[in-house]
């Protein structure tokens, strides 16, 4: 195999691509052994998350639904594989391919905090594990044009409503005040409204405030607004109370960067139980607001559970953002409220909803991580979220590492984008990160089926706050384009120690970044160096191609969704899906695509196989192709790369869920977790 330095095309710059003939890569099919690595000695099963309370708009459900049952059948796809290897020959290739080897913030007085309630004693429970049905079980219908597939109904209720294409930032009904998730006819109660305040104090198990008052400080002297920490109290549950319906409101009507009715961010976006989350909020004009805290999960299809509600807080209009070149920062904003995270809160993805009494809303995401070992660690791509954040999206000053506005209201490309961005600012638009939809799709699906999950940010691995070798697998659930060198070294070391890697998006490791401290703390500034010619961000492939970790690498953008063409269907990953050789999964190749580049070195491996080979045409009409890759490292770790941004939405996105992708993903995770 030629392992020279020529790399595949990077189609981000259309001028570089124009007139270039399609380069169809040669693919290598290696032997596909399906023996999973031995279970790591000393790993202990973590107790399932305790039941979480739900709010007036969300019925109470457990974190991992206790009523979940599975039809009779093999407990693992691995059970039907021959011992010691798969049924796939060493040199199997798709029939249409040829085989080859180839300014300081003002100092405010400390803000007082209310202590969190004591954690209740958690009863010992046995760990539940998911099971995937086989062909002997009742069939469930798949997408249009697909045969009836073994399994049960996988789709959850419509958390992401009205998604017009596979990868928008989805409208989140439970956050944005549209209709109650799972109930299209009942409107949700606006946080901060009288009905919300009444329901929060009327015995609801969703959020039982530990205080009804608040401590108000004079912003002119302390720089802070109303303070006080409110958390749920699961020790005295009471029947939930139904909130009176309110008129539905458009999901996009309450957050923008032009009017700036309410915006906010956190100084630490990932914390451990027992630590605190500091919110910096600007309200224009100044008026009271409240904070509702939700945890993202399946929750019987509702998509989230409300964990806490703040007392009414005094809003303050913060100073304008600081601008230096293209960089925008808000680290000089006053502290508005501090939430003490109770020790009993489970790890997960959380969203704080900032809401005024007149219905204006914004969102602030944060993550609760946990040092307890788990089977799988979900690594949320906060580096990429910050790189793509163009706050303020006002048509003038906002900029990220990929796009920027100019003074004439034009959205510029990467060559004119920022070189450095700050994490000390809100996210543009609704306040949710760019491309967060696929991440929440994976979270809801994985929690629905009981996988033992830990949560962390990419910066946690970068800074060494989380040891990735303690997990059987690392799951990268969405677009993850920007990586630092310490992050990559940590992930490669985990792979070499036997931890499997699962990439459920495309375009990972496309750009290299470095971090630096800001006045607010370490690693709050993100810089992407530029190539000398063209001003484009320097890709990883200039020095260490991403294929050397993923097994494939970025091929380009996919302007129109195309079907994913399944290959090597006798591999255990496709077992029980009902997919046959050459079957097409409609619309699954979209957004971005990866493929194998034969002139770029492969990672060390003992087995390797490509599980999809899908043609599509780029924006210039040039024929290209996408591929899905799986290889086994010498350590025994599996490394899976979906190679398309459409894989994660196919797990739980209404209108895009595909039972074949769901089953294949379950086969993969069960194989990694050794659930047989």
Tell me what you see in this structure:
This protein is α+β, with helices and mostly antiparallel strands and 676 residues long. Among the domains are: 74-79 and 131-163 and 371-383 and 428-512 and 541-676, Class I glutamine amidotransferase (GATase) domain (Rossmann fold, 3-Layer(aba) Sandwich); 171-368, Macroglobulin (MG2) domain (Immunoglobulin-like, Sandwich). The chain has eleven helices and 27 strands. The strands form eight sheets. A seven-stranded mixed beta sheet has the order 17-13-18-20-27-26-25, with helices on both faces. A five-stranded mixed beta sheet has the order 4-12-11-6-7. The chain is globular and about 60 Å long. The protein starts with 13 loop residues before the first helix and ends with a helix. The model is unreliable at 1-171 and 173-253 (pLDDT under 50).
Helix-strand blueprint:
Blueprint: H1 14-17, E1 139-140, E2 149-150, H2 173-176, H3 194-200, H4 219-222, E3 262-266, E4 270-271, E5 276-283, E6 289-296, E7 304-309, E8 322-324, E9 327-329, E10 337-340, E11 348-356, E12 361-368, E13 376-380, H5 382-388, E14 404-405, E15 411-412, E16 420-422, H6 436-448, E17 453-457, H7 458-463, E18 473-476, E19 482-484, H8 485-496, E20 500-503, E21 511-518, E22 521-527, H9 547-550, E23 553-565, E24 584-595, E25 607-617, E26 623-632, E27 638-641, H10 649-652, H11 659-673
Parallel strand pairs: 4-12, 13-17, 13-18, 18-20, 19-21, 20-27
Antiparallel strand pairs: 1-2, 3-5, 5-10, 6-7, 6-11, 8-9, 11-12, 14-15, 16-22, 21-22, 23-24, 25-26, 26-27
Biased composition (Pro residues): 50-63, 236-248
Protein name: N,N-dimethylformamidase beta subunit-like C-terminal domain-containing protein
Biased composition (Basic and acidic residues): 11-30
């Amino acid at each position: 195999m030629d392992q020279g330095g020529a790399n595949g095309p990077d189609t981000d710059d259309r001028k570089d691509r124009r007139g270039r003939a399609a380069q169809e890569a040669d693919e290598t099919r290696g032997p596909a052994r399906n023996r999973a690595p031995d279970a790591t000695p000393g790993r202990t099963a973590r107790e399932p998350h305790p039941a979480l309370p739900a709010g007036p708009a969300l019925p109470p459900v457990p974190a991992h639904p206790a009523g979940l049952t599975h039809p009779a059948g093999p407990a693992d796809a691995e059970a039907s594989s021959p011992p010691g290897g798969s049924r796939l020959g060493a040199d199997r290739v798709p029939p249409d391919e040829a085989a080859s080897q180839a300014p300081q913030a003002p100092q405010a007085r400390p803000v007082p905090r209310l202590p969190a309630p004591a954690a209740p004693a958690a009863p010992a429970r046995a760990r539940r594990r998911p099971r995937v049905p086989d062909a002997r079980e009742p069939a469930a219908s798949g997408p249009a044009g697909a045969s009836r597939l073994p399994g049960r109904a996988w789709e959850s209720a419509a958390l992401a409503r009205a998604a017009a294409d596979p990868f928008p930032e989805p409208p989140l009904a439970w956050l944005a005040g549209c209709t109650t998730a799972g109930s299209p006819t009942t409107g949700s109660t606006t946080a901060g409204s009288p009905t919300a305040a009444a329901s929060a104090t009327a015995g609801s198990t969703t959020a039982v405030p530990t205080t009804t008052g608040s401590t108000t400080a004079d912003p002119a002297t302390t720089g802070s607004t109303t303070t006080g920490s409110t958390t749920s109290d699961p020790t005295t549950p009471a029947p939930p109370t139904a909130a009176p319906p309110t008129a539905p409101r458009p999901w996009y009507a309450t957050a923008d960067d032009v009017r700036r009715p309410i915006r906010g961010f956190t100084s630490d976006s990932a914390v451990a139980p027992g630590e605190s989350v500091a919110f910096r909020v600007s309200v224009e004009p100044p008026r009271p607001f409240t904070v509702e805290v939700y945890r993202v999960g399946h929750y019987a299809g509702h998509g989230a559970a409300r964990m806490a509600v703040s007392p009414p807080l005094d809003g303050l209009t913060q100073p304008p953002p600081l601008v230096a070149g293209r960089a925008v920062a808000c680290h000089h904003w006053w502290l508005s409220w501090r939430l003490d995270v109770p020790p009993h809160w489970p790890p997960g993805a959380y969203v704080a909803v900032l809401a005024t009494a007149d219905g204006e809303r914004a969102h602030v995401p944060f993550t609760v991580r946990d040092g307890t070992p788990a089977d799988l660690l979900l690594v949320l791509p906060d580096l990429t979220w910050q790189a793509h954040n163009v706050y303020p999206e006002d048509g003038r000053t906002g900029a990220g590492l990929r796009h920027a506005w100019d003074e004439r209201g034009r959205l510029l490309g990467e060559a004119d984008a920022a070189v450095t961005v700050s994490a000390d600012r809100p996210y543009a638009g609704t306040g949710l990160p760019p491309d967060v939809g696929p991440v929440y799709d994976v979270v809801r699906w994985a929690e629905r089926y009981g996988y033992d999950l830990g949560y962390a940010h990419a910066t946690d691995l970068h800074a060494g706050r989380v040891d990735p070798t303690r997990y059987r697998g690392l799951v990268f659930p969405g677009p993850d384009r920007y990586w630092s060198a310490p992050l990559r070294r940590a992930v490669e070391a985990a792979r070499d120690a036997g931890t499997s890697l699962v990439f459920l998006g495309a375009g990972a490791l496309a750009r290299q970044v470095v971090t630096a401290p800001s006045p607010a703390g370490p690693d709050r500034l993100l810089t992407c160096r530029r190539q000398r010619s063209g001003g484009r961000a320097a890709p990883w492939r200039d020095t260490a191609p991403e294929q050397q970790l993923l097994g494939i690498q970025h091929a380009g953008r996919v302007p129109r969704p195309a079907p994913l063409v399944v290959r090597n269907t006798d591999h255990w990953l496709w077992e029980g899906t009902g997919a046959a050789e050459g079957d097409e999964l409609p619309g699954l190749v979209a957004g971005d695509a990866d493929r194998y580049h034969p002139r770029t070195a492969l990672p060390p491996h003992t087995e390797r196989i490509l599980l999809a080979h899908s043609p599509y045409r780029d924006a210039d009409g040039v024929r290209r192709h996408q591929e899905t890759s799986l290889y086994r490292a010498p350590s025994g770790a599996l490394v899976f790369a979906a190679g398309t941004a459409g894989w994660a939405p196919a797990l739980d996105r209404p209108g895009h869920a595909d039972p074949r992708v769901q089953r294949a993903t379950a086969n993969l995770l069960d194989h990694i977790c050794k659930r047989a």
